[in-house]
Amino acid sequence: MDVYKNETQEIIKRFLNYRLSFDECMAALDDALADLTSRATDEKIASLRPLILENNDIVMDEMKRRGSLPFNAEILAALGDGITASDYRSGQVIYAQGDSGDAVFYIQNGRVRLTVVSKFGKKAVIAVLGPGSFLGETSLKGQPHVATATAQGKCSIERLDKSSMLRVLSENLSFAELFLDHLLSRNLRLEEEMIYQILNSHEKRLARALLTLADFGKEGRPKKAIPKISFEALAQMVGTTVSRVGFFMKKFRKLGFIDYNGELKINNSLLNVVLHDPLVTMATDPPHGGKVKWKDI
Question: Cβ distance 146 to 124 under 8 Å?
Answer without folding.
Answer: no
